[in-house]
Amino acid sequence: MWDRAAAVAGWLSAAGCGKGDRVVCVTGNRPEILAVLFGANLIGAIFVPPNPELTGQFLGHQLANSEPAVVFVQADLLETVRRRTCG
User: How is the chain split into domains, by residue range?
Assistant: First the structure.
């Protein structure tokens, strides 16, 4: 897990994410979420897990309200997130 978290931290830093920035992870209950949580923590970013029960406009509101610097999205949820955040 340490190696995965360090890899995520490196990727986040390379993407310009840093201390105080918010990192959202839209996934189901998956072990990969821990690498994102710990990776964000390593660089001082704030991990924001959206409510997994939210869909539609409620998910869009939560994503917009959190003002994330980076959003990780599970592949099968990508179109849903795009529709709610990109128009």
Answer: 2-85
